[in-house]
Write a structure and sequence with these properties.
The complex is a heterodimer of chains A (268) and B (327).
Chain A lengths: L1 H16 L31 H17 L4 H11 L1 H13 L1 H9 L10 H6 L5 H12 L15 H21 L5 H15 L2 H9 L6 H21 L16 H8 L13
Chain B lengths: L6 H15 L29 E4 L2 E4 H15 L3 H9 L2 H13 L6 E5 L5 H24 L5 H10 L8 E6 L2 H14 L5 E5 L12 E7 L8 H11 E12 L5 H23 L2 H13 L3 H10 L3 E8 L4 E7 L2
Parallel strand pairs in B: 3-4, 3-6, 4-5, 6-7
Antiparallel strand pairs in B: 1-2, 7-9, 8-9
Classes of the chains: A mainly alpha (268), B alpha/beta (327).
Chain lengths: 268, 327
């Protein structure tokens, strides 16, 4: 029994240990306060409540000031999401597919994806469309920041999974990675997960939009996103890695996701 | 959160080490050790695997230099912004005070080690330029009875606004030097400034070259502080001055508690929010706790061969300026 758990842990932590090629990021090199003792997972930085509060406030401010600081959005999510992550984790435990994800801890990264196989899948399947989304928007699953400030190892995985599923949501909803598309996905996620970071992002993200985009957003895209978010089951409970060959249309039907009300520029 | 005061440990690595190196037997070294005053600089092949500190971590000495390099490589671009944010601008006052203490005259040759982004060097250039201008003004005033031709000649000779002063900024980190050069260009500093890549423990300069040697907020990152002090002694001219501006031990217990709280709770958060780098700033506050106190550092400087060593604590001891002379 313990041997099976050990192999599972090794498989789950394996991709975490793999560092990207080239010079190591300097942030990895000096280790924080506890230096081994008290670290719940690789990359964990234990923080006091005061530090979490300061981080939450600082990251929120910086994310508003400089929207390109995606790492600040991630930090905001980690420092404010403790309670919500617990709720999400319990929800995942109750669902059979979600429980499997929690146990097996799959990761979506370039090293764990079999790109060749995904490429060979028929057009219209989830895997093929996901690859196309990555290619068209010129993003990679490896740019997601690793979890650092969550003080529970399972919850750290839940938020990491949420981040990695974010790209899946873009594919499912058909939203590009421009600011309008991101806000729509944030609204969907806010309704689905209830994470404070999503709610804040959904409410404050539109501040930087032009009046025209704002109008379109409020009148059509947000109601659509909220409707679909309410209707769909929890998207964290989907084992995407097992559904690569499922046709995207069928998956959308399963989740109750309708086509967007209008063509948001960037992705067909 | 308060750091253990590692005075005992430091004395071993600092003073004990340098004393032992003066020709005595070092315990634990292979018997083929050459010994004597020539052993002042260890050959890298025969270096024993001793450990040192990197913040609160323990690392081997070979590792430390690399890790410190990576820290400063990562922080270089936002270095000045972070300094302002962390010290609320007070670091500018500290550096100004260092210059006032230095009071350089035009014609001074300054070596600014670990000078990175050039804060001290630029202040030096401004200072000597102002001094030189004042001197010129006085001279002109005193010679108001001169003929027009003589005055014109004086103006023609007036090419060097610095009066022969020169500063060399030496740093081990390329990124910091790059940031410094960009700043120099932006602020219009051209003359009298040289940028050199070098290691404080092994300076690429001849003996007896400089009038003043400064190292501001750099010496605590050096793996072998005693070697840096010996190098400082070597490159200074007789009569030259050693000046060090560095974080030190706070003397007031209440302020010490507040300072610790601020250091460990706020500074890494600032590092994460502004520079996206928590760990480099965690290293910063830990390395400050590891640095010896004012008195201990004074002893280390005296061991390096300096005379009339004195220190002045600023802001209740958060920083201290140590000064010594090569006689």
């Amino acid at each position: 029994m313990s041997a099976a758990v050990a192999t599972l842990l090794r498989r789950a932590l394996g991709p975490l240990r793999r560092l990207p090629g080239g010079p190591r990021p300097a942030a990895d090199v000096p280790r924080a306060g506890s230096h081994g003792a008290g670290l719940l997972y690789p990359g964990h930085i234990p923080t006091s409540p005061l530090q979490k509060a300061l981080l939450a406030a600082g990251s929120a401010g910086m994310a508003l000031y400089n929207p390109y600081r995606h790492d600040m959005v991630a930090v905001l999510g980690e420092t404010t999401g403790h309670h919500t992550l617990k709720v999400l984790r319990d929800q995942m435990r109750r669902d059979p597919e979600g429980a499997q994800i929690l146990q097996e801890r799959p990761r979506i990264s370039l090293s764990t994806l079999d790109l060749g196989k995904l490429q060979s899948l028929p057009e219209g399947s989830l895997g093929h469309e996901y690859l196309r989304f990555l290619h068209v928007n010129r993003v990679s699953p490896d740019t997601r920041a690793a979890t650092r400030f969550v003080d529970d190892e399972e919850l750290a995985y839940v938020i990491q999974r949420y981040r990695e599923v974010h790209d899946m949501l873009h594919t499912l909803l058909g939203m590009p990675t421009n600011i309008l598309g991101e806000i729509v996905v944030k609204w969907f996620e806010a309704v689905q997960t209830g994470l404070p970071m999503c709610i804040l992002g959904a409410l404050f993200g539109p501040i930087r939009l032009s009046a025209q985009s704002l109008q379109v957003l409020v009148s059509e895209l947000i109601p659509w996103a909220v409707q679909n978010g309410r209707r769909a089951p929890c998207v964290l409970n989907l084992y995407y890695e097992r559904r690569w060959d499922q046709p995207l249309g069928a998956l959308r039907e399963e989740l109750g996701i309708t086509t967007p009300p209008m063509h948001v520029r960037g992705m067909a | 959160m308060a750091a253990p005061r590692s005075c005992g440990l430091w004395s071993y690595y600092g003073r004990g080490w340098s004393r032992a190196m003066r020709g005595c037997q070092l315990p634990g070294l292979p018997s083929s050790w050459p010994g004597g005053p020539l052993a002042a600089r260890l050959l890298s092949q025969e270096k024993p695997a001793t450990e040192t500190h990197f913040g609160f971590e323990t690392v081997s000495e070979e590792e430390k230099q690399g890790k410190v390099y990576q820290v400063f490589e990562s922080v270089a671009k936002k270095y000045d912004l972070m300094n302002d944010a962390m010290s609320l601008g007070v670091h500018r006052v500290w550096k100004d005070l260092l210059l006032w203490k230095m009071n350089p005259l035009p014609g001074t040759q300054l070596l600014d080690v670990a000078g990175g982004t050039g804060d001290i060097a630029f202040r030096f250039l401004n200072y000597v330029q102002a001094q030189h201008q004042r001197k010129r003004k006085r001279q002109l005033k005193a010679q108001q009875n001169l003929s027009w031709e003589e005055i014109a000649k004086k103006y023609q000779n007036q090419e060097d606004s610095l009066g022969g002063s020169h500063v060399i900024v030496c740093d081990i980190n390329k990124e910091m030097l790059k940031a410094g050069k960009q700043k120099a260009f932006a602020q219009g500093h051209k003359a009298g400034l040289t940028w050199v890549l070098g290691d404080a423990e092994e300076l690429p300069f001849d003996d007896d070259k400089f009038d003043i040697y400064t190292i501001a907020f750099g010496i605590r990152n050096v793996t072998h502080i005693d070697r840096a002090l010996q190098e400082a002694h070597r490159v200074l001219k007789p009569g030259g001055r050693f000046l060090c501006l560095e974080f030190s031990q706070v003397n007031n217990p209440l302020i010490s508690r507040l300072y610790d709280l601020y250091s460990f709770q706020v500074i890494p958060v600032l590092g994460e929010v502004i520079a996206g780098d928590w760990k480099s700033y965690q290293y910063l506050v830990e390395s400050i706790r590891r640095f010896p106190s004012q008195e201990e550092f004074k002893d280390m400087i005296e061991d390096g061969g300096f005379h009339k060593v004195a220190y002045e604590s600023l802001t209740s001891g958060i920083v201290a300026i140590h000064s010594g002379f090569k006689l």
